[in-house]
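TODO from last week: model DUF3817 domain-containing protein.
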Amino acid sequence: MRIIRIFDPPPESCLTSLHPISPMGRVFAWTAFFEALTWAGLLLGMWLKYGPQTTESVVWLFGRLHGVVFMAYVAVTVVAALRLRWPWWATLLALLAAVPPLVTLPLEWWFRRRGLLSAQR
C-alpha cells in the first residue's frame, strides 16, 4: 500500500502532457467550444424572448449561428472519429453531446483527459 503525501507529484495518469493534442483534436475542441457558445447565446435569446419579452433578434441571430455550428460540429466529429480512430462509443457520445445544451464542453474535456484527442493512442 502506497501512502500519498500532499507534496508528491501527481501520478502519470493525471498528467495531460502525456497526451499532446493533435491538430484534428484541436479542431474538434474549438468546434465543441463554439457549439456550446452558440447554445448559450440561443438560450439567452429564448430567455429574452419569453422572459421579459424584450427582443426576438437574439434568437434570430443565434438560431442561425447555432444551426451552422451544429452541422459543422457533426461533420468535424465524424472526421475526427475517423482520423483519430475513436471507438464507436466515443463517436456516438460526441454526436449525442450536441443535442442537450452545453454538453460538448465537458465531453471535450473528458476526451482530452482520456487521450482521445491525441494522435498517439
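Done. The mean pLDDT is 87.
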